[in-house]
């Protein structure tokens, strides 16, 4: 898998390239990162990449030509074609199903906006997808691009070892798309509070049932939409439904 990032701040990407799970996977050659700075595709002495918005208003807008030339250079350098993704608050919200679908692809060319945004003519001509990290505004697309790279790379085969397996993570189909259950480690008693008894039982089925019920409880309280989706998908068992009804009876 290969990610090309078009960014005015290539040095920011050292975080995903060099550190943690994604850093280890990069060293192992499981994914590659190439950064393209639009300033390297300018032709004036000031290496200008932005200008004032037509129609007035605050801030600056990224010019189309340096971005288009950077994307073209990335496309030429890639062995396989890839989606050209603009990080944007106006895009489709990034989520785990999208991360899973991207993990099955060849990677992406990720465009990191800055300032007020990007000239619309560049978007219309070159961008295939727009992705948002959430309903908030970042100063630039770099943190959003890094979040996407991290979420996708950790799903690639062989990237996580068994201890880190993504199967038990929140939103995973193996967990019926529910939120993860709480985790505990040593010591057995911390600040007077003991680890829940089922986790100490050594009884696999009991532990699995306790975790399932904690997932259901947390998801019902915080993300009822995920319970609905699991129900629609037929991912909830009769035992799950009984437990969910018992939660309602408590209220
Ligand atoms: C200050 S923002 C521009 C926001 C834009 N004027 C708007 O209101 O939609 C600069 C850049 O940060 C990136 N960005 C900001 N928020 C983002 C988000 N929630 N998801 C993805 N990218 C974001 C985009 O690349 C955007 O072009």
TrEMBL record:
Record-listed E.C. numbers: 2.1.1.228
Keywords, sorted A to Z: Cytoplasm, Methyltransferase, S-adenosyl-L-methionine, Transferase, tRNA processing
Domain of life: Bacteria
Domain tRNA methyltransferase TRMD/TRM10-type: 1-228
GO biological process annotation, one example: tRNA N1-guanine methylation
A single GO molecular function term of this UniProt record: tRNA (guanine(37)-N1)-methyltransferase activity
Primary enzyme class: transferase
Methyltransferase among keywords: yes
Subcellular location(s) per record: Cytoplasm
Catalysed reaction, written as an equation: guanosine(37) in tRNA + S-adenosyl-L-methionine = N(1)-methylguanosine(37) in tRNA + S-adenosyl-L-homocysteine + H(+)
One Pfam assignment: tRNA_m1G_MT
Chief place where the protein resides: cytoplasm
Chain positions recorded as S-adenosyl-L-methionine binding sites: 113, 133-138
The keyword Transcription belongs to this UniProt entry's keyword annotation: no
GO cellular component terms listed in the entry, alphabetical order: cytosol
Ranges in coiled-coil conformation: none
Database matches in InterPro entries: Alpha/beta_knot_MTases (IPR029028), tRNA_m1G_MeTrfase_C_sf (IPR023148), tRNA_m1G_MeTrfase_TrmD (IPR002649), tRNA_m1G_MTases_N (IPR029026), tRNA_MeTrfase_TRMD/TRM10 (IPR016009)
HAMAP family: TrmD
UniProt function note: Specifically methylates guanosine-37 in various tRNAs.
Assembly and oligomerization: Homodimer.
Family assignment from sequence similarity: Belongs to the RNA methyltransferase TrmD family.
Name this protein carries in UniProt: tRNA (guanine-N(1)-)-methyltransferase
